[in-house]
Design goal:
Length: 356
């Protein structure tokens, strides 16, 4: 019998009944939404900033779900191309409407239905959207409705490129979620262990060791992944510190897989091209071979091939992310040099696991 009672409390999308940390941030959020609770308008919007696993989304959602009025929650999907269109559809759905005609007409249908009623719009994972795509939505909400918009993002400068007339109407405050410290991670681990593991299957000492291991990352997500992986490894036995090194290996591999799955389309296709070449011709993979294979992969998926210059930019980005390596070798005296591409072993292993 496994010591795991439920895996739900360890899921990335799980919203706990209460937040056991972020006291200061909770106070700021509650204070910000007080006018809306009393039926008034809150003309100042909110930009919530924090790295992955910093608790910015879960804290905001817990505060919002305790408000009398349900917010319109929009999660930006990186893989959807028409992001502005999708956001308009989500807004219309919130008011019980469907898109009709062009986007502009549909937005003004929202204005007609909402009237002077205050409401809250949450745009989560806003990093997956360009400022150019985000601008018309924020422009409309801030000028034509009584919406309070909450932007949740990792990057602090995501709103810097807004047009001047949008910046003039879209006033906002910032709240920054700092990385978690060891004591905070311990409290989160303890709460989720009580909810997801069987009594007596863990000790505070083991949870504290996990918190110590996760502190350099400052991420609750990483800490919870470690705890769940250790619980899986332990089977029916109580958790032991000895499981930590093995669990770290599994979690880091899974994190890489998740990172690969979230790559932009052309990045992913280029990595697929390099992977195909490594599998069939593991040595001497030149830039010319990569470019040829990449064009074939794009054509097979109905996408436009990119220029060589753009390909080199993508290759450089994949190298910076640590997925591939690019080396330059001489071809002999007076014959110049040649660049070769090599995929890192851990990247190959992650792609292998995705294809199983």
């Amino acid at each position: 019998m496994s010591i795991i009672r439920s895996r739900l409390p360890f899921d990335d999308n799980f919203i706990p009944p209460e937040i056991v940390d972020r006291t200061e941030e909770q106070t700021v959020l509650k204070t910000h939404f007080e006018p809306i609770i009393s039926g008034d308008v809150q003309p100042i919007n909110l930009h919530v900033i924090g790295s992955i696993g910093s608790g910015k989304t879960v804290t905001t959602r817990v505060i919002l779900q305790n408000l009398p009025a349900k917010p319109c929650y929009i999660q930006v999907d990186e893989w959807i191309r028409a992001k502005t269109y999708k956001m308009v559809c989500d807004l219309l759905s919130f008011f019980g409407l469907k898109i009709y005609g062009n986007v502009c007409d549909s937005l003004y249908n929202i204005k007609a239905v909402a009237g002077d009623r205050p409401f809250i719009v949450v745009i989560d994972e806003a990093d997956n959207m360009s400022t150019e795509d985000l601008d018309p939505i924020l422009h409309f909400l801030s000028r034509e409705t009584y919406a309070t918009t909450v932007i949740i993002s990792r990057r602090p400068n995501i709103l810097d490129g807004l047009r001047e007339d949008t910046r003039d109407s879209f006033k906002y405050r910032e709240i920054v979620f700092k990385s978690y410290r060891k004591a905070e991670l311990f409290e989160i681990l303890k709460q989720r262990a009580e909810m997801g593991l069987k009594p007596g299957s863990y000790t505070d000492e083991v949870l504290y060791r996990i918190a110590e291991e996760a502190e350099p990352y400052g991420s609750a997500r990483y800490a919870l992944d470690l705890l769940l992986e250790m619980a899986e490894l332990s089977g029916s036995r109580p958790l032991k510190e000895d499981y930590i090194p093995v669990a770290i290996g599994y979690v880091e591999k899974r994190s890489l897989v998740r990172a690969l799955q979230s790559l932009p389309t052309y990045h992913a296709l280029l990595l697929t091209a390099v992977y195909d070449l490594c599998r069939n011709h593991p040595k001497d993979i030149t830039l010319a071979k990569v470019y040829e294979r990449f064009n074939t992969v794009c054509t097979e998926r109905g996408l436009r091939p990119l220029s060589k210059r753009r390909l080199y930019d993508l290759l450089s980005d994949l190298k910076i992310r640590g997925y591939i390596d690019i080396t330059r070798h001489g071809k002999g005296r007076g014959r110049g040099t040649e660049c070769y591409v090599e995929m890192q072993d851990y990247t190959k292993e992650a792609i292998d696991s995705l294809q199983k």
